[in-house]
Design a protein that fits this description.
The protein is an alpha+beta fold. The protein is 67% helix and 9% strand. It has two domains: 271 residues, no CATH class; 120 residues, Jelly Rolls. It contains 15 helices and eight strands. Helix 7 crosses helix 8. The protein is elongated.
């Protein structure tokens, strides 16, 4: 029997299932609260970092006072970092003193560690794992992440400043200036992507696949890039200053940081959903008809099995053997359509133990008990099954307690039937 013809909707089904799973897990895990905590620690670490940067700018500016191109370049760097705007909103004092540098460094270290810990706490929820990170690694990780992040941001800032400076001078034509601006935007996007990719790939204890991580990180980077570009058009600083007074600037930046963290965690949750969407869809298929956790939207999103059939489906004709007694294979099967018979070799010949019909899961005993196949399974009609490798079955049992109980109950019933059959032979 051949698999039924499948409509060209599998990709759309896959995207719908990923989107539904992402949003469901995002709100279930309360990631909006994790985003608020991360934005708060970002605010605490941003001010001392900008103060230290301001000190460095003043010191480098004095060194470049006698060199006109260097003075122009540092002026462009000052504009690129928006230090004047940050002074206006109250992030930077108008007259900084180097005496506060020690306090700024200490505050930066403590708040940066708090921000990294907030991100790690969110990632533990997004990417749950059975193992824990070592204590030494947990303490050293912030000391590694912060310098790497600051180094990449610094490199991006310097490159952006140089490109913006050359695109603004009158020595080059308009076409070259436009090209430099495009290169500048691409470079900034590349730096954002690299930071997001490293966070998505290295922070989870059980690392996701590098290819999927790179694609999701690119989508997250584009979203953040657009957020930064459009934020000022929808949120006006003057309105927040008129509403909150002296705190208006801090509230304005805090809202921007909060939305950036929302985007960052939403795409991280999407990365997890990409790796678990098959497990989610298989659970809904296996439990279909039992009314467990079903709703209309979920029934619509996971109602079609076309994508699962394309990926895991196999067809058999009457008399074909799906499982041979004594084999070492551990693949489990879900009977999507048709009937199969279960047979066992005895001293008097092969004996039929029973029949399985549509909706049954079988073949899982070999994986769960780590033993050879205890019976032979043959197709008694045209059959379509979903062949599930051991890692998928393991993920299914971890993911769904209800399905695990059903598998254990079925396993106990089959063991009881086999014991009864053995007793009758004796």
């Amino acid at each position: 029997m051949k698999l039924p013809p499948l409509p060209r909707q599998s990709t759309l089904d896959w995207l719908e299932q990923i989107g539904y799973t992402t949003l469901r897990l995002f709100f279930r895990n309360s990631l909006q609260n994790h985003a608020a905590a991360t934005a708060f620690y970002f605010m605490l670490s941003a001010t001392p970092l900008l103060l230290l940067l301001s000190y460095a700018m003043q010191w480098l500016g004095k060194l470049a006072e006698t060199y006109v191109p260097a003075t122009m370049l540092f002026a462009e760097l000052y504009n690129q970092l928006h230090l004047e705007m940050l002074t206006e909103v109250g992030f930077l004092p108008r007259q900084t003193r180097l005496a506060a540098g020690g306090v700024g460094v200490l505050t930066l270290l403590l708040s940066s560690r708090g921000m990294v810990n907030a991100v790690q706490s969110a990632f533990k929820v997004i990417f749950p794992a059975d193992i824990k990170r070592r204590l030494v690694t947990s303490w050293l990780l912030p000391l590694i992440i912060i310098p790497v992040a600051l180094g990449l941001l610094g490199l991006a800032g310097i490159a952006q400043t140089v490109l913006s400076f050359f695109s603004s001078v009158e020595l080059i034509g308009g076409l070259q200036a436009t090209l430099l601006k495009i290169i500048n935007a691409i470079f900034v996007l590349l730096m954002i992507w690299l930071l997001v990719f490293l966070a998505y790939w290295r922070l989870p204890i059980e690392r996701p696949k590098a290819r999927e991580t790179a694609i999701i990180a690119l989508l997250a980077s584009i979203s953040l890039f657009l957020l930064f570009a459009l934020f000022g058009h929808f949120f006006q600083l003057e309105k927040y200053k008129s509403l909150y007074g002296a705190l208006g600037g801090a509230v304005f930046v805090l809202i921007g940081a909060y939305f950036a963290c929302i985007v960052f965690y939403l795409w991280a949750q999407c990365l997890f959903a990409v790796g678990k969407v098959d497990v989610e869809a298989l659970e809904k298929l296996f439990l279909r008809g039992e009314g467990y956790g079903a709703n209309k939207l979920e029934a619509y999103v996971f109602g079609r099995a076309n994508r699962l059939l394309e990926r895991y489906g196999k067809s058999f004709s009457p008399g074909d053997t799906l499982i041979e007694e004594g084999d070492q294979s551990e693949t489990a099967f879900f009977l999507y359509a048709g009937e199969v018979g279960i047979y066992k070799n005895t001293e008097t010949g092969e004996r039929k133990l029973g029949t399985l019909s549509e909706g049954e899961l079988f073949g899982e005993m070999a994986y769960l008990l780590k033993e050879k196949r205890t019976a032979t399974v043959r197709a008694e009609s045209d059959v379509v099954v979903l062949a599930l490798p051991p890692n998928i079955l393991e993920d299914l049992m971890r993911h769904s307690a209800h399905l695990s109980r059903r598998i254990i109950d079925t396993l106990c019933q089959r063991l009881e039937k086999m014991n009864l059959a053995s007793g009758q032979r004796q």
